[in-house]
Amino acid sequence: MEESYKTIMIVDDNIANLKIAKNALSDIYDVFTVPSAAKMFDLLERNKPELILLDIDMPGMNGYEAIKILKDNPETRGILVVFLTGKSDSDSELEGLSLGAVDYISKPFMPPLLRKRIELHLTVEEQKRILEDQKRKLEENQAELKNFNDNLQSMVEEKTAKVLELQGAILKTVADLVESRDDITGGHVERTQRGLKLLLDGLDELGLYREQRQDWDIDLLLQSSQLHDVGKIAIADSILNKPGRLTSEEFEEMKKHAAIGVQIIEKIEASTSESDFLKYAKIFAGTHQEKWDGSGYPMGLAGEDIPLPGRLMAVADVYDALVSDRPYKNAFSHKEAVRIILDGRGTHFDPILVDVFEQVADRFA
User: Which of 104, 141, 240, 321 has the smallest set of CB atoms within 10 Å of its CB?
Assistant: First the structure.
């Protein structure tokens, strides 16, 4: 839930943009509007906001120059920065993100989407702070735990459960953040997760792929599936939210989300000892768009060279896309979606998984 005490600073040389943003946010946040980067730094001497909406193209000092100064200063380094710009090319977005921005919003922006994006970023930041507090408390308690041998196991389990619960909350927030950038697919992450569980249940019931699944942690697998589209965070709004079919050039840009998702997860892997969860997440992100006949992307894998989690996600992902409305099509009926997936047996999809899907298709409905 949004909290009224949080402070947002909006920096833009366009007075109209400042007014629109302030009107959209002032009922739930303390909002400061600033017409230039120089005046922003003056105001930061007295007020430290939780988040800055920073225009890129401004006279005097542009947004790229301003964020470098913000991130070099220990007192302002932790302030979240979201870029505002009229540009829509992915190179500009990647440059902004590499400088430390957490998001990139194209102008003109829709007030409801602006509010949602800010809410999600602030929620992620709050959850991170809570997680850090939990870790500190856990470390402080280690010495005391040695004196409670009888209750050691139960105490560890309780702490672990809280950390896992918090991890799940952060993961859900990140997944919601990615999904909020692609506002045509609301609920997609949750539905594909449920579809994946139905397919796994079907594999159990039919006794298929037992050897490949014997070491799987199903809870971690399902949780990590929420990151299968995380690479979309680097795709331009103009492509994600285009009200119509993509051009061939735009589709090539969209296809990059699979490889970008792998890169994002690999960066997380480099700074943590957690392996199983991220291992599953990387497989989902990098292989859910591969096809059984080798015509998919990003690597053009074929057959059983595609990891089983990726083949499972391909079925769940396509089913949800078929039964969901898009700007360029109406939702197919469940019956039509089942027929299309059955027709993809041996071309788009693993034939065995299509047989499993056919067995549990009524549960998808």
Answer: 141
